Amino acid sequence: MANNLMYCEICKKKVKSFYHHLKSVHNITSEEYRELYIPKRFCDYCNSVITDKKSSAKFCSVKCRKEYYNIIHIENSRKDPSNKVECKICGFMCRSVLAHVRDHHKIPFSEYKKKYNLSTEDCFCKEYINYCSEKIKGETNPGYKHGGKFSPFSKKFVKYQDLDNKEIAIENVISKVKQTKKDNPQNQTNHIEHWLKLGYELEEAKLLLSDRQATFSKEKCILRYGEEEGLKIWQDRQDRWQETLNSKSEEERSEINRKKITKGYSISKKEKELFNILSKEFQLEQQLALFDRRCFLFDIADPSQKKIIEYNGDYWHANPDVYQKDFFNKKIKKTALEIWELDRIKHQVALDNGYQILIIWERDYKNNKERELNKCKEFLNEISKNY
């Protein structure tokens, strides 16, 4: 029972039912008693008054407690800096900053490395690198020559041994992976949602996404291998890629180029109608692919005459006769000015390749189809006229 007694500073004795005692005997509340008789306590981190009723409390908030012990943790980590690397964000030292950056600072390790331009040696001490290397080297690696038994995309996967139809199981795995990627674009570095989630502004996110998508370029080869060796490696890959492409039939090449850039892009009914009508009189190609650092597709083309006809939808291409420059396309999240600039770049690629271009706007075609058809036929028949 003695352990349940509390000492009253007013009557200088231990009492039972302390808060009832304060009210009945001294006619004051616990808050008033604490203000008058209990010394104020101050936070060890920010020096603010502690309002916690517990006498053992040393901090005014959970945040202060975490920050305080984080400082102590960092100071302790720096006492023996041998075989340790330093976190560029907070100064904490450890053998590997991977888990520290991911769990403490809540950012992907790849972003941390890129932001501070770090090498592997800057993130892991030599002792840790050697340890990890030896752990998975050769026959010590659990997956050494596994022959597909650890891959859910292989028929030899250990979990498929008792299944009759392994192909269906593999198709289900592939379907789940695709659906997961589709449902969580923010987790993939090749989607702008990923960069926006990390806190970048829209324009910064666009630049980072563009850099991520350009996984193999002349500039990156030069930066990594030096100008002479980089140009050689880049040109060798370009030649091999072109050789592979040229070995395929015309139909296969066209399909490869179409899939490479469209990814779900569909051709409008009116564009198909225009192509079908003109194809009766001219040898035309649909979705012509031209390359300049990336692939551009053009709606209707006569490669032999170097002529291109672009059927532009009013909404998707922000027809200047319909939309103002500040119009914002919610579907593709671009202003009219941005759309016009993209079209300008695309058309310049065609011009640089010696093509002439005729633009047919959706509104004009719907209002006067006969006039626009005649314009197209005249354009395809004439050789020197500029449009």
Explain the overall architecture.
By secondary structure, the protein is of the alpha+beta class. It folds into five domains: 2-63, no CATH class; 78-135, Arc Repressor Mutant, subunit A (Orthogonal Bundle); 167-213, no CATH class; 217-247; 253-381, 3-Layer(aba) Sandwich (Endonuclease, Chain A), CATH 3.40.960. Helix content is 48%, strand content 11%. The protein has helices at 18-26, 30-37, 62-77, 98-104, 109-115, 120-123, 126-135, 166-183, 192-197, 202-213, 218-225, 227-246, 250-262, 269-279, 336-352, 362-367, 369-381; strands at 6-8, 13-15, 85-86, 93-94, 285-291, 295-302, 307-312, 328-329, 334-335, 356-361. The strands form four sheets. The protein has a four-stranded mixed sheet with strand order 5-6-7-10, sandwiched between helices. The protein has a two-stranded antiparallel ribbon with strand order 1-2. Strands 3-4 form a two-stranded antiparallel sheet. The longest helix has 20 residues, at 227-246. The protein is elongated and about 110 Å long. The model has no long low-confidence stretch (mean pLDDT 82).
Give a concise summary:
The chain is an alpha+beta fold and 387 residues long.
Topology of helices and strands:
Layout: E1 6-8, E2 13-15, H1 18-26, H2 30-37, H3 62-77, E3 85-86, E4 93-94, H4 98-104, H5 109-115, H6 120-123, H7 126-135, H8 166-183, H9 192-197, H10 202-213, H11 218-225, H12 227-246, H13 250-262, H14 269-279, E5 285-291, E6 295-302, E7 307-312, E8 328-329, E9 334-335, H15 336-352, E10 356-361, H16 362-367, H17 369-381
Parallel strand pairs: 7-10
Antiparallel strand pairs: 1-2, 3-4, 5-6, 6-7, 8-9
